[in-house]
Amino acid sequence: MTNEFLISLTKKYESPLYVYDAEKIISQYNKLTNAFASVKNLKINYAVKALSNLSILKVFKSLNAGLDTVSVQEVQLGLKAGFDPKDIIFTPNGVSLDEIEQAMDLGVQINIDNISILEQFGQKHPEVPVCIRMNPHVMAGGNQKISVGHIDSKFGISIHQLPHILRVVENTGMLITGVHMHTGSDIYDIDAFLRATEILFNVALSFPDLEYIDFGSGFKVPYKEGDIQTDIDELGEKLSKRFNAFCTEYGRNLTLMFEPGKFLVSEAGQFLAQVNVVKQTTSTVFASVDSGLNHLIRPMFYDSYHHIENISNPEGKKRFYTVVGYICETDTFGTNRQICEIKEGDILSFKNAGAYCYSMASNYNSRYRPAEVMVYKGKDYLIRERETIEDIINKQVLVTIDL
């Protein structure tokens, strides 16, 4: 997509604006499946929480992907997008038995991550096959907030509690058809990830009726030029070989599952915002845009890096700017960034805005959430309208109190 095309989209759909490149999503999906081409049964379940727009989900359906969901609402979105329930796996954390039963009633695969719910579910529904989420106690994420496989994590059942799991399974007569792990996001140490897979292989030997092993995801994508990223081809070569050998040891071919989100959609997205004010202080030049942490909270929440370009003046002289938002909090997108000279009214593009950007957006300060646009083969499609004041007040109930 050219800068001129992107700028034209902000004029057509207003600023700020999320723009997604469907062809990039497809190429990322193909890159992952090609890396594991030697595995007989491979299933990629897209992590809906990364970007849950129905039109994006339908792209994945056309690719024969499944869905990884973490709430009943995400399950319902998947069904609305046309997915077969058997192609949706429900992997919540810390939810009630009631919510798990709601998902069960919708016919999706169930993944349980604590012994309490496992025992309750097994006592009530021993006939329903389930997957068990294990915690391998391997640290493999780029930030403490997104590393979920370590010993202090709330996610999964500790591998040291495997005897307890087996006792629950034996006492309830449950059928365990899958084992699962997720070590965290931004994995770049393949050896650490492979150590975790060995732990999961050992766990899998305890369950004779498995149909699949789900290795989670968290593959790191580049956020700037020269950035470290997960070597998917190396991972595919090493894990495929080990997985195929394990299937021989286990006695039959299982399905190898992944649940990528960021890897598939992050680089496909750009967030476009217009510069409201260029403000010179005694020490800093601020470029204030018509957005804030209400639309892209990751830099404030995770200290994440999003490359910022001035697409209105891509050849201009580079100067140092601190790019900030219009929210009444400190909402800094980037500090002392070298960006081509910025003028008020210019459009800035925030890269890697496909994952965990719109899905984490809010109406903080009673601001509207922007429109979403998908681009495929040069044609733009509006896939979510910009909000209005009616959207903000729609569910409110106005009560007048006599004082």
The value of Rg in angstroms is 23 Å
* CATH class membership of the largest domain: Alpha Beta
Main beta sheet: strand number and arrangement? 9 strands, mixed
The domain tally reads 2
Terminus-to-terminus distance: 58 Å
* Helix coverage percent: 25-40%
Shape: globular
Please write the string of helix (H) and strand (E) elements.
HEHEHEHEHEHEEHEHEHEHEEHEEEEEEH
Strand content: 15-25%
CATH topology of the largest domain, by name, is: TIM Barrel
Describe the structure concisely:
By secondary structure, this protein is α/β, with parallel strands linked by helices. It is about 30% helix and about 25% strand. The chain is built from 12 helices and 18 strands.
Helix and strand topology:
Elements: H1 3-13, E1 17-21, H2 22-35, E2 42-47, H3 54-62, E3 66-69, H4 72-80, E4 88-90, H5 97-105, E5 109-112, H6 115-124, E6 130-135, E7 157-158, H7 162-172, E8 176-180, H8 190-204, E9 212-214, H9 232-250, E10 255-258, H10 262-265, E11 269-280, E12 285-289, H11 298-301, E13 308-310, E14 318-324, E15 332-340, E16 347-350, E17 371-376, E18 379-384, H12 389-393
Parallel strand pairs: 1-17, 2-3, 2-10, 3-4, 4-5, 5-6, 6-7, 6-8, 8-9, 9-10, 12-14
Antiparallel strand pairs: 1-11, 11-12, 11-16, 13-16, 14-15, 17-18
Helix pairs in contact: 2-9, 6-7, 8-9
Function: Specifically catalyzes the decarboxylation of meso-diaminopimelate (meso-DAP) to L-lysine.
Modified residues (N6-(pyridoxal phosphate)lysine): 49
Pfam families: Orn_Arg_deC_N, Orn_DAP_Arg_deC
